[in-house]
Amino acid sequence: MKQDAHKAELTARTAVRTEVITAADAGRRLDNVLMNLIKHAPKGLIYKLLRSGQVRVNSGRAKPDYRVIEGDRVRVPPVIPNSAERDTVPPSRLEQLRGAIVHEDAHLIVVNKPSGLACHGGTGLSYGVIEVMRALRPELTRLDLAHRLDRETSGCLVLTKDLGTLQAFHGALRERETCKQYVALLRGHVPDDLMRIDAHLNTRRNEHGERRAEVEEGGKAAATVVEQRRRYGANTLVRLRLETGRMHQIRAHARYIGHPIAGDREYGDAKFNREMKRHGLRRLFLHAERIAVTASTSSVDVVVPPGPDLEAVLESIERAAS
How many Å apart are CA 198 and CA 10, to the nearest integer? Predict the structure, then answer.
């Protein structure tokens, strides 16, 4: 009986199926819907299935950003079984993320994302936080990223367990009813009267096809609030709060004001980075310290201080300056 059940499950996973969109998913992007329908699949695979036409909506091709409608019929192609996907995640990563959970309730999980781990798998990446967490919690019917952090940024990252909480969290983000606070080490002394950075941002691709945020008048509005600052030698540790959530916003804004973030290889200063490396910095000095949101299904206010690696860098700078 057990063998027959396993065979039936394997057949279901490797056979073409049609899913009908319900009212609960109406209005969501197709790629996000597929991330839930094809558990543990890297995002790169989702896009590959869409580009190749293996995923169809009402018998026609559809783009990743298509907003699904109630009653849409989505063709979901055969995929690698879930267990095989989980096997691609090293046990060390599973244990690392298990120990990184800093808050959990019936509706969401907050993890202290390690620097160097992407939020999701993609080009050249077989897994990210979402794949690892889904492998850790196979009993959950769904688990979604509520927002994202850059790969090199550490700190508070929210994952939701149900669609209602995901939608409520996104609504709070749109209405700016969340608090997203970061800690960053910037080159030089940030002026005491600089309380806010307002600079529109556009996203462009460089010669390597990588996305990059650029300050441009015609871009999207972006605002970063400077809440606290403390000097470490010739540099400044700042506490920043995002009023908007543009891609690479803090990194692009820091570069724009002439005080790039330590360890930032894309937006930073190579000479400054070499100096910080002598103090033991091996990563981007940007940490999502606090996430606070009040949503209809769940409220959370979590603070996670920077890790020992970043604290050791500050101590080294202070010793050198004394």
Answer: 53
How far apart CA 295 and CA 300 sit, in angstroms, is 9
User: How far is C-alpha 322 from the chain's CA centre?
Assistant: 38
Q: What is the pLDDT of residue 86?
A: 46
DSSP class of residue 174? H
DSSP 284: -
What is the sign of the dihedral through the CA atoms of 156, 157, 159 and 165? positive
Q: What six digits make up the tokens of 258?
A: 């002439």
Name which of 186, 173, 250 is nearest 215 in CA terms: 250
Under CATH, to which class is 176-321 assigned?
A: alpha beta
Residue among 25, 31, 144, 150 flagged as catalytic: 150
Map out the domains of the chain as residue ranges. Answer: 2-81, 83-164, 176-321
Chain segment 70-113, per-residue pLDDT in tens: 999 999 988 754 444 445 788 999 999 999 999 999 999 999 99
pTM: 0.78
Give bridge partners of residue 196 from the DSSP assignment: 225
Separation of alpha carbons 287 and 195, rounded Å: 19
Q: Please give the CATH topology (third level) of the domain spanning 83-164.
A: Pseudouridine synthase (3.30.2350)
Quick one: CATH architecture of 2-81? Roll (3.10)
Q: Is 150 a catalytic residue?
A: yes
CA distance 314 to 232: 7
Residues 30/49, Cβ–Cβ less than 8 Å:
no
State how far the alpha carbon of 127 is from the alpha carbons of 42, 43, 44, 45, 134, in Å.
6, 9, 10, 11, 11
Alpha-carbon gap, residue 62 to 30, rounded angstroms: 8
209-220: b (≥16 Cβ within 10 Å) or e: eeebbbbeeebe
Residues in the chain predicted with pLDDT less than 70, given as ranges, are: 1-14, 39-42, 80-87, 122-125, 207-208
